[in-house]
Design brief:
alpha/beta, seven-stranded mixed sheet, globular, disordered N terminus
């Protein structure tokens, strides 16, 4: 369905006003908001939105890739069996563009009505992708209603996609760019909803600036995730790039349910399988 509004805009000021209480909002100076707008390349992102309207879902995702001249090679798509109900679990190297690429690929295969991506509820501000997103907000007042929606979709025939690390990849102590530990919840949800798990590996990385910012933030003991602010700009910087996506073979939920390992151990095993896919 096309939008009634001819131009869609990303507006950081409006997002802050919607999420920050008025008493706290008055302490946020206007120059800081302007700085954030430049940092995330709000103007360039809005140009992308205008260029890809009035599309939605996987069509929008494909148009974003085309607009940025980004090419994708997909390997292992034959592992996705007809009639399978899956929980896709992927590494998260880019923090945005990887999700857009995967929406394009899975939307083309299954149709937008049959795919749902578990995301932070803040991403519901990306209007063209709202239809394929399942918002997660564990602590807000909408947490309960979101949980009900997630449980409903888990019980359906929709294909469910998740980045189990939650955050995008970081530079680790060994000098490798890799996910943090994968959270165990996707394993429990897969068993509960009788979904086989498809391990996915997305081959890509962000700029050195992103990883250096993350390292310095950690060294300085700053808990607020400063580097996340850079992720929209990372999408813009990826113009002209090429990425590879690898889909592994289904891991049956029955085998997971019968395993003597804990959900945390299983999550770590599936993470290892994901990272081995380019070499298998």
């Amino acid at each position: 369905m096309a939008y009634m509004t001819p131009i869609l805009q990303l507006d950081i000021k409006s997002i802050i006003e919607a999420r920050v209480p008025a008493k706290k909002r008055r302490w946020i100076p206007s120059f800081l908001i302007k700085r954030i707008e430049r940092l995330i390349r709000q103007k360039e992102l809005n140009e992308i939105l205008r260029a890809t309207l009035p599309s939605e879902g996987s069509v929008f995702a494909k148009r974003v890739l085309d607009y940025l001249n980004i090419s994708i090679d997909v390997k292992g798509i034959e592992n996705l069996e007809d009639g399978g109900r899956y929980m896709f679990a992927s590494n998260h190297p880019l923090g945005g563009l990887d999700g857009i690429a995967l929406i394009s690929v899975l939307g083309e295969k299954y149709g937008d009505d049959n795919i749902r991506f578990l995301v932070n509820d803040l991403l519901m501000n990306v209007e063209p992708l709202k239809g394929v997103f399942l918002p997660v907000n564990k602590f807000g007042r909408q947490g309960k209603s979101y949980a009900e929606i997630i449980n409903e979709k888990m019980a359906s025939d929709c294909q469910i996609f998740q980045f189990p690390a939650g955050l995008c990849s970081r530079l680790n102590d060994s000098g490798e760019i890799a996910d943090l530990n994968w959270q165990k919840s996707f394993v429990a949800k897969a068993i509960e909803s009788h979904r086989d798990i498809i391990p996915v590996f997305f081959e890509g990385k962000n700029s050195k600036k992103f990883y250096k910012t993350a390292l310095w933030r950690k060294k300085l003991g700053i808990k607020f995730n400063l580097e996340q602010i850079l992720l929209p700009a990372e999408l813009c910087k990826a113009r002209g790039s090429h990425f590879n996506i690898f889909f592994g073979k289904p891991i049956s939920w029955q085998s997971l349910a019968d395993s003597q390992k804990s959900a945390r151990e299983i999550a770590a095993d599936i993470r290892s399988i994901s990272y081995s896919l380019p070499r298998s």
